[in-house]
Amino acid sequence: MSRLISGRNLLALGLMACAVLLLPLAAHAQTGAVSGKVVDVSNKPLEKAVIQIEFMDGINRRYEVKTNKKGEFIQIGLGPGSYKLTAKYEGLGQQEQTVRVRLGDPTKVDFILGAGGGGVATKEDAARAVALKTLFDEGVTLSRAGNYDGAIAKFTEAATVSEQIGAKPAEAGKPAEAAKPVCFDCYYNIGFNYGQKKDYDKAEAAFLKAIEIRPNYSDAYNGLATVYNAQKKFDKAQEMSQKAAELAASAAPGSAGGSGAVDAEYNQGVILWNAGKIPEAAEHFQKVLFLKPDHADAHYQMGMALLNQNKLAEALPMFEKYLELAPEGQYAATAKGILASIKK
Q: Of 184, 236, 337, 342, which one has the greatest count of Cβ atoms within 10 A?
């Protein structure tokens, strides 16, 4: 038999439901959180960096989280108090910070790794890492503005700062021991800017220094390929480009279409083209288009390769696609002229 429920009982049930719903909110109000970001010395986010969080006020509490693709992390549910956070990333060492967590909004804690030569960054090293990042960012801004000399000066200064990070102070009767340079990106960018100035000897030396610091640095091998190609040293250029492609592929297994692999394939095509090996160059441009169908310059180069083989009908859609993707691109005027000639 069904029963009527009085308004009084409904109100009581409603209050009970509210009480249940409010419990998690009340518990949450009694905790704090930490959040932040982990980057390397060139401000690149580090995915899957490990953050260890240790409560420092008596009770043994430990937490561990990892960063996402943006290098970000968050840990909620922390009681108020002092915590030591240690950020770690394989090959780039670790950094420690102690913070005070309070109730409410997360306490922000950011890390820059790779500044201590693989060890624990001191406060002095952390300050130098911030200075290194500032110099690096200034160098990028100058480079993008076409001020290559200014950019080289900033990246060179940043590289010098990186050599001071992790250095051991002088002991009695012994000189100070310098740390190994860690800013391989500084040397890559020095090489890039010297390349823009067509000072290829200094560009080569900078790229080689970047590889000395980081032997699997595919971008630096691509830089060397560009330098050797400009000097018409096509065999060496192809060797460096092939090495870059191998490194890019091994760095991201299962993801052959990564930007490093695409760049290496395109560079190999250009090098072979300049060496007069048109069919071989076309094979690389085809692979670029397979990996990255919207690669405008590869469409243009593939069109030129087909044109060279007198395959006008096949070349035509390549130039049309190039103009669709890059209507104001560096080859736009040439592509328009070729299309007009083909269509006559």
A: 184
